[in-house]
Amino acid sequence: MNKTDLVNAVADKMGIPQYRSRQFLNAFQDVLMEKLGQNEIVLQGFGSFKAWEQTERSGRNPRTGVPCVIEARTSVKFKPGKFLLEALNPQNK
After folding, report:
1. Is the torsion defined by CA of 78, 83, 87, 89 positive or negative?
2. Terminus-to-terminus CA distance in the chain, angstroms?
3. Cα–Cα distance for residue pair 26/62, rounded to 1 Å
4. Are 14 and 8 within 8 A, CB to CB?
């Protein structure tokens, strides 16, 4: 599912026009980006998003095989919550 599919699904589920759904998802995305730099974001039952620092490491270009250095950067980890895991794995109840 891509962003357009998500916009359409949210619009259908909420019974709102697609442009309103797109506004909502863009605002949600903006808030996530702003707040992740400050601390962890926890959506109770769904999961949590946490920024973490990746260290510099060696890698290689997959096309050419030439070794290179992958620079340090900030990335995001997502840890699914209890209810999301239960919805994805109903046989484990």
Report:
1. positive
2. 27
3. 33
4. no
Tell me the pLDDT tens digit for each residue of 14-38. 999 999 999 999 999 999 988 888 8
pTM of the model: 0.70
- Going by C-alpha positions, the residue among 33, 41, 31, 39 that lies closest to residue 23 is 31
Q: Between vectors from CA 78 to CA 17 and to CA 53, what angle results, nearest 5°?
A: 120
pLDDT at 81 (0 to 100): 92
Closest CA relative to residue 86, chosen from 50, 47, 49, 48: 47
**Amino acid letter for position 18:** Q
